[in-house]
Each structure stands twice: as C-alpha cells, then as structure tokens.
C-alpha cells in the first residue's frame, strides 16, 4: 500500500502494518527537489501492484531529527528500514538505483515472509498474541529521543550561561561595593575637615587657608561624582545581561591621573611616613582608555602598596613608553612581596594569600584590575621588586595620533 501524503512520523500515532516492506522518503521544499519527488512517487505507485509496502514521506524541515537519526546529508533520499539490513538511496538518480535494487528487495522480502511462516506466533503470559511493533513507529521514538536529548543539551547550555551571568554580576557588584570605600573615605575626610574648621559666628573656616578650603571642596565634589558613577555601574550590572565591564575610552594623560590618585591618598601614606618616588616621563604618550576605570586600577594598586608597605618604606611609580603602540605603568612597594607560586593566582576572584586571611579586604581588587585592563586589550602582571616587595605592571594602548 502507498499512503500518507507528507504525514509526519510520530510516536503519538503508532503505525501497525502487516506490510513486510517499510520505506521512508525524505524530501525538502526546494522546487527542483519537489519535481524529483513526484517522479519517485509515480514510480513507487507502479511498484505497489507487485508488493504491498508502507511508505512515509518526511519533510526534513519539519522533522530534522529524523534526518539526523539516519545521518542524511542530502535530500531527496529513499530509505528501506525493513526488512534489515537498512539501505539508503540518495542523489539525483534514485529511480535508477531503485530499479537496480528492487529485485533484490523482492528476494529479501520473500525470504523474510518464508521465515515468518516457519515461526510460531508468539504468545505472552496472558495468551494474547503479541503484535510486532511497527518499524516506522520505533524510528519515530528514536527520533524523538534525539530531539529531547538536543533540547536537554540546549537547556543545559542556557542554564550554564545564566549561572555565568549571575556569578559575574555577583563578582562585579562585590568589586564595585569594595571600591566604594575609597571615595567614601576621601569624601568623608574632606567634609569632616571642613566641618570641624567652620565657624558659625563668622561664616568662615578657621585654620584653613582659602586654597586648602577650595581644595577640600573640590575633593568632596570629585569623590561624590565618583561614588555616583560607581552606583550607576552597580545598577547597570544588576539589570544587564552582558558579562563585560562598560568601557568608554578616550584620550587620557595617565601620569596626571596617577598624580591625582596619589594626592587623594596623601593622608594615608604620610601617616605611615612612606616615601613616594615617581618616574613619569613628561613626554609619556597619552593612552586610549576609560579614565574612571583606569583610576580604579591605580587606586587599587596604590592602596595595596600603602597597605603592605611598612612605616618608612618606599613606594615607586613609573611610566614607560614601551613601544609605539603601548605604554607600561608600574607600581612597586617595599612590602613582603608576592610568593612566586602565587603570582598568577593573585588575580583570581576572592583569592587571598594565607598571610592576609586575618586582614581587612575581600580579595577582589586585583581581579577587578585585571578585568579592566583586559577590557582595554592590555596586560597586567606582578613580579618581585629589586629591593624586595612587589612590582605590579600593566599596559595600555597609545592614543592614535
């Protein structure tokens, strides 16, 4: 029998057929392919008088999993799935191939029918005849299994991606919250200094020169803007789906940014009587970077240098025009340094040296620095300073002239 015009093979509607020959014809929507399919079907109709067979016509656009199940690489294709062995006829000469194979299929079917006659009918424990399961139906079940496996794989990938986004958000929010402490502290010190020296009766500032008053006001305003920008970043990360830090590059004088950060941290290193040595060439090229992000990097590195350098110790800041395309900036200290075996791991999120387990901090500052520098297509690394301590280096691209 010849039936089922483009009826999808489905495990929900099993087909039980007594026909000994089961065929699948895979087609697609191409006009040229459609003409070839019509010729194949016309030829199959001529053959139905000789042998009864079950034919399913499958559109690969609607059921790609069946095509995957049979590992088809081209359509149209005619597949004999029963009796075994399975055979695939494909290409532009399917009718010619079918003419060659049809007599052999007839011989195989005759042998199959003879074998069936010789076998006793199988009876289950309840004395009911067990009908043979349709080969086409079992193929549909296999195809559905492939489809479900692919769907599970897709859902797993989606789950992994969502988990990565959530973990990234958690890390960045923790990093930015950690970095909020520096501008908050600087702004608080400036405001407290102004407040403690303000005279309500005269409306002026006692013991503060006009230049210092203007500097403190500028400092408080600058730090407040930094806090506002970082809160904006927190909100952006919280509602966004991207896993990259937002970078707005422009022409930046790296040396000036560094000197500004050192000025903000002056109270910190003067309180420990630390010596700051700067070697920033006046002709150091400007870099192409986000000034606020690079300021975060410098703030983290200098903050760590001050933290780990003992009283009276030395902190070095140096700039180097490394190539025509890159500028290298280095910050060194005379602290305990970084063990060689930890020089790579020091940039991992939440990684902390064993000696620092009891000290303040969250182990996220250097991870943030690495993310920022990499977002600028630069590099960051650490090695041992000549006089002990650690040397942190990073590179940034030169602003194009």
Strand order of the largest sheet: 8-10-11-13-12
- Secondary structure class reads alpha+beta
What's the number of helices? 10
Percent of residues in beta strands? 15-25%
Described by strand count, sense and barrel closure, the largest sheet is: 5 strands, mixed
* Radius of gyration from the alpha-carbon trace, in angstroms: 38 Å
Question: Helix and strand succession?
Answer: EHEHEEHHHEEHEHHEEHEEHEE
Overall geometry? rod-shaped
Query: Residue share in helices?
Result: 40-55%
Poorly predicted ranges (pLDDT <50, ≥5 residues)?
1-17, 123-127, 357-363
Tally of DSSP β-strands: 13
Return the average pLDDT rounded to an integer.
Answer: 77
Straight-line distance between termini: 79 Å
Task: List key phrases describing it.
four-stranded mixed sheet; single chain; 401 residues; 17% strand; alpha+beta; 10 helices
Folded structure, characterized:
By secondary structure, the chain is α+β, with helices and mostly antiparallel strands. The chain has ten helices and 13 strands. The strands form four sheets. It has a five-stranded mixed sheet with strand order 8-10-11-13-12. It has a four-stranded mixed sheet with strand order 2-1-3-4. Helix 4 packs antiparallel against helix 6. The N terminus is likely disordered.
């Amino acid at each position: 029998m010849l039936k089922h015009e483009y009826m999808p093979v489905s495990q929900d509607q099993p087909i039980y057929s007594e026909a000994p020959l089961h065929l699948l014809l895979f087609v697609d929507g191409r006009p040229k392919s459609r003409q070839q399919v019509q010729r194949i079907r016309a030829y199959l109709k001529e053959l139905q008088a000789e042998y009864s067979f079950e034919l399913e016509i499958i559109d690969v656009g609607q059921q790609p999993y069946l095509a995957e199940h049979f590992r088809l690489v081209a359509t149209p294709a005619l597949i004999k799935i029963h009796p075994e062995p399975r055979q695939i006829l494909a290409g532009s000469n399917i009718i010619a191939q079918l003419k060659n194979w049809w007599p052999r299929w007839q011989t195989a079917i005759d042998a199959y029918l003879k074998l069936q006659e010789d076998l006793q009918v199988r009876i289950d424990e309840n004395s009911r005849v067990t009908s043979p399961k349709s080969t086409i139906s079992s193929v549909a079940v296999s195809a559905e299994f492939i489809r479900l496996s692919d769907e599970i794989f897709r859902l797993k990938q989606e789950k992994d991606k969502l988990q990565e986004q959530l973990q990234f958000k958690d890390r960045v929010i923790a990093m930015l919250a950690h970095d909020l402490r520096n501008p908050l502290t600087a702004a608080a010190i400036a405001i407290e200094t102004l407040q403690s020296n303000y005279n309500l009766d005269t409306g002026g500032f006692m013991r503060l020169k006009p230049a210092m008053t203007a500097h403190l006001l500028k400092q408080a305003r600058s730090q407040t803007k930094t806090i506002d920008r970082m809160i904006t970043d927190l909100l952006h990360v919280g509602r966004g789906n991207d896993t990259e830090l937002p970078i707005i590059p422009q022409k930046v004088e790296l040396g000036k940014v560094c000197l500004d950060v050192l000025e903000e941290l002056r109270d910190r290193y003067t309180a420990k009587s630390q010596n700051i040595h700067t070697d920033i060439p006046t002709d150091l090229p400007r870099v192409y970077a986000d000034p606020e992000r690079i300021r975060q990097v410098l703030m983290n590195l200098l903050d760590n240098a001050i933290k780990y350098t003992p009283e009276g110790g030395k902190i070095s800041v140096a700039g180097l025009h490394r190539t025509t395309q890159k500028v290298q900036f280095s910050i060194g200290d005379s602290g305990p340094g970084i063990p060689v075996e930890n020089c790579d791991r020091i940039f991992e999120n939440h990684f902390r040296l064993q000696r620092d387990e009891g000290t303040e901090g969250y182990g996220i500052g250097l991870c943030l620095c690495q993310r920022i520098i990499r977002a600028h297509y630069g590099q960051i690394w650490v090695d041992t300073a000549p006089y002990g301590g650690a040397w942190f280096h990073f590179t940034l691209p030169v602003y194009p002239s």
